[in-house]
Write the structure tokens for this entry.
Amino acid sequence: MYLAGPERLELRRVPVPEPGAGEMLVRVDAATTCGTDVKVYRRGGHPRMLCVPGPFGHEMAGTVAALGPPAAGEPLPRFAAGDRVVVANSAACGICEWCRRGRENLCATLAYLNGAFAEYLLVPARFARASVHRCPAGLAPAVAALAEPLACVLHGLEIAALERPAEVAVYGAGPIGLLFVEVLASRGHHVVAADPNPGRLDAALGLGAATVVQVSRDGGEAERVRQRAPTGDGFDLAVEATGSPAAWWDTLASARPGGTALLFGGCPPGTSVPLDTHRLHYSEITVKSAYHHRPATFAAALALLAGGIAAPAVLLSGERPLAEVEAALCSMMRKEAFKVVIVPPGAESTAGHRR
Ligand SMILES: [Zn+2]
Ligand SMILES: [Zn+2]
């Protein structure tokens, strides 16, 4: 499936690629749609992740179909044909300053991989080297594909660096917000979720939120949300998981004195948000931001999924064949689906054995 421009998807029939030196060919068992896909589909590309026309989809799990000859000077491949794998959608260079500091998501030449909505995915050598993870035994491919969004959330939580049981507000109860809710609640934090959509708030309660607040899409809700904090003066951590400037503002205004705001959702380029300098300064609010994931959080996400978490049963709203990616994105835009499993021809339906 190719994205050809804004709201233009094309299903193209192309020969199955032959893996070259150091490359790997993976047969896709399941891919999942993501909020980023909706954003990229509407805008017709992404400044960093995807140029059009180009292959589309970035969350997947599959089976190694073939390996190219080993690249010169490279160690022997870690995988063999038939291995079940999950391929992360980015690969760092491994040698720049940021990579050496363990901040691979900031790699100066971070490369992105798209093409999960397909029968086969050709994995370039850089990805085959460091971005292919073994799929834990027994983990359904559709669930394993959630490693990508969950890895982003775990990266965000590492950045937030909560040291003790905390009171946390999460703005946004889409897939990312709900993953934040479940992981935070499972770690013993008191979570208040805020979203305009009552169905999504119910999902947040099901995943461990202590309280939910229905807020308007236009923001200006920080006062109401802050009042739901057990201490009444705001939150140790406020997480923004919507990508809207109004929620950035509310998140900044929801941290209690000495608290932290984690700004997670990417807004469109050129967006700016005003700051309440008085509050930021006199209440010592720490402002943090998190982008994407790192190999370590990707591996941690797979381990967490293999351990069994509840979110997949909530987030995977349905299943559609490859030809229906557009319908899947439309159902997400209508808020009828959180995420849809895309099953390529020949792959087994995942319905019934998701966990
Ligand atoms: Zn994603
Ligand atoms: Zn690098």
